[in-house]
Amino acid sequence: MRKKTQGTFRAADVVSISLDDLRAVHVDAITEQLMAVTDFRKVIVNAVDYVDVKVFAIAMMRAMKAGKNFLFRTAAAWTKVIGGVADKPLLGRAMSSLSRATRMAGSSLLARMSRKQQSSSKSCVSSMR
Question: Per-residue pLDDT for 119 more than 70?
């Protein structure tokens, strides 16, 4: 953290949620760590898998329910877990079976939107000069 922030944040000012605690499902211990965070200190969660993030989410929700507020800067895994977004299969042949006319209509619409956006951005740039 110190290296990434050019020394702005010291290691002593960072709360680290260990992978060991996440894997051992020490929700109470993690919640206690979160409850002790003060003065806009940073929290690093050493999660590797969605299951790790789920364990952390439980502790985070408990801390928030107890009155703690947090500002999040997270990876996509957090929003997926906290939002309860289910896994979806990859697109397969079903999507590729769209008719050629349908695919072409979509392409045409994108091309028109692109031209409109280009002219709009040109006029915006012109008015800034």
Answer: no
- Kindly tell me the burial class for residue 40, based on how many C-beta atoms sit within 10 Å of its own C-beta (0-12, 13-18, 19 or more): exposed
Its sign, for the CA torsion 78, 83, 89, 92, is negative
Against a cut of 0.70, is the pTM above it? Answer: no
Longest dimension (CA), the chain: 61
Contacts of 9 (CB under 8 A, 6+ apart): 1, 2, 42
Backbone angles phi, psi at 50, to 5 degrees: -60, -35
Answer whether residue 86 shows pLDDT above 90.
no
Q: In 1-129, where does DSSP find H-type helix?
A: 19-23, 27-35, 50-65, 76-82, 93-96, 100-128
